[in-house]
Design a protein that fits this description.
Layout lengths: L3 H5 L3 E6 L13 H18 L18 E4 L10 H12 L5 E4 L11 H8 L6 E5 L2 E5 L5 E2 L9 H15 L10 E2 L2 H16 L3 E5 L16 H9 L4 E6 L6 E5 L2 E5 L13 E5 L3 E6 L5 E5 L3
Helix pairs in contact: 2-3
């Protein structure tokens, strides 16, 4: 039988990094993008080190992350996109933990979809994996996108053009080219994954690049309401974690915590991190952002 101390220990921890947006172009206005590579290295050194303490438990102890999730926009993009992405991946490769990648819109600024996915080692743009009793789901929110690395003659690009034009006609605040949508095939896949997780009594954490809330935000996914409806129709989803906006925030809706993590490129700290401690009954997000600690229950 587990003791009280053992029950209060995290089962494991994982790390998340968002919006590195590195650029080797040191022209005025991109100074912070140039510095983000050094910030990323300090962050990875922190994840590799022994100083990560589970301060949220009653018995603090050290543990290294089981994996790291990169939430997209690894680079700013442009003429140096190819070499810039190689430099970022070179730093990420110094991490001892396994890496999982999410596709961001800036990742395709200067690179096509096939090249980006190959460099990131991604066989699929959206996928899922399981650790313990949690199902982790990675969405491709650049599925229907102007900035998603799609050829202009492709179905995904043309569908994005049509959707964006309709949103502009409606005066939608998020009718921006840097936003995008989740397409029909991926929506069906998401429903199947969530249905399977619910049957298996798994809790689900979703990673994506674009936020779904608040509704009046110019950075939200074009079909954010549609994706929220899918997510909230299953009681297994605990959290939706994204980047893109750069400022950290969180909002609860129908039992799901929608979390936006701070963009590494915007941080004024020398040591930037976001670590998620996984307990039997909760997730605890600890970070250097404005919300240093956020508890998300797993029992609902």
């Amino acid at each position: 039988m587990a003791t009280g101390c053992e029950m209060n220990r995290a089962k494991y921890t994982f790390a998340v990094v968002s919006d590195i947006q590195y650029s080797s172009d040191g022209t005025p206005g991109l100074e912070k993008n140039l510095q983000s590579l050094d910030t990323l290295q300090r962050t990875i050194d922190h994840y590799n080190g022994k100083e990560m303490i589970d301060s949220a438990s009653y018995i603090g102890y050290a543990r290294k992350p089981s994996f790291i999730v990169q939430l997209g926009d690894a680079i700013e993009g442009g003429e140096n996109a190819n070499t810039d992405l190689d430099k970022v991946l070179g730093v990420l490769d110094t991490a001892k933990a396994k890496k999982y990648h999410v596709l961001g819109n800036h990742d395709f600024n200067g690179l096509n979809r096939q090249t980006v996915m190959k460099k990131l080692g991604m066989k699929k743009a959206y996928y899922d994996f399981t650790k313990g009793k949690i199902r982790f789901v990675v969405l491709d929110t650049n599925d229907l996108s102007i900035m998603g690395g799609w050829p202009k003659a492709s179905t995904n690009y043309r569908a994005a053009e049509d959707m964006l034009e309709k949103l502009k006609q409606q005066g939608a605040i998020n009718a921006m080219e840097w936003n995008s949508a989740v397409g029909p095939d991926q929506k069906q896949w998401l429903k199947k994954v969530l249905s399977d997780a619910q049957k298996k009594k798994q809790k689900v954490v979703i990673f994506a690049h674009h936020p779904l809330l608040p509704e009046d935000d110019k950075y939200c996914l074009w079909n954010s309401g549609e994706i929220r409806d899918i997510i909230e129709s299953y009681n297994c989803v605990a959290a939706y974690v994204n980047g893109h906006r750069h400022e950290d925030s969180y909002q609860w809706q129908n039992g799901v915590c929608y979390v936006t993590l701070e963009g590494l490129v915007e941080s004024k700290d020398n040591n930037v991190y976001a670590v998620v401690w996984v307990y039997s009954d909760r997730l605890m997000i600890e970070s250097t952002a404005q919300t240093p600690r956020l508890m998300i229950p797993l029992n609902k």
